[in-house]
Amino acid sequence: PGVSDAPGLLLFAVGILALLYGFSSAGVRFGWQSWSMAFFLGTGALAWTAMYRHARRHPAPFFPFALLREPALRLPLISIGCTTFCMFALIFYLPIYLQLALRSGAGQSGLMLAPVMVGMVTGGVSAAQLVARTGRPQAPPVYGLSLAALSLLGLALLPPSPTVIVALGFLCGLGFGPTMPMAQLMAQVAAGSEHL
What pTM, to 2 d.p., does this model score? Predict the structure, then answer.
């Protein structure tokens, strides 16, 4: 029970916090080419380098870098990374876009995100039921991400109207929904029970 690698966890937290704060503050609290940005980038890089070295010596590291060399884990990790970037961009920037392009209020633009969340839950549950019947988790993320990509393209190219945004938002969520659970399932199977 508990974390067996407290130093690894601490290094992970320091590295992530430094990088997140640096990238989210650059251009707002300080310039991109400032000493502050260099400090946060350097701290993040040093923490992650120390974590990597520590993980190579620890029998059960907090962040098992060795698993990243597994070919079966590479594609799920890449798909999770891309999905996360697109999903957060949609969730963070769509309300701003709605307020600027459609002149909607904060409450209305937040409400227009609800279909994205409903789509994500629907997509995730549907994919889980499909995989429970077929035993094949590879197809739902492929079709889901294809649907999400086409929906994001539609959001970028079609004229802004509430109906279009709600419909495409739902389809984006429907496409994003299966990706995380299926990639996690594939990663757990590929990593083996010793890494769970």
Answer: 0.69
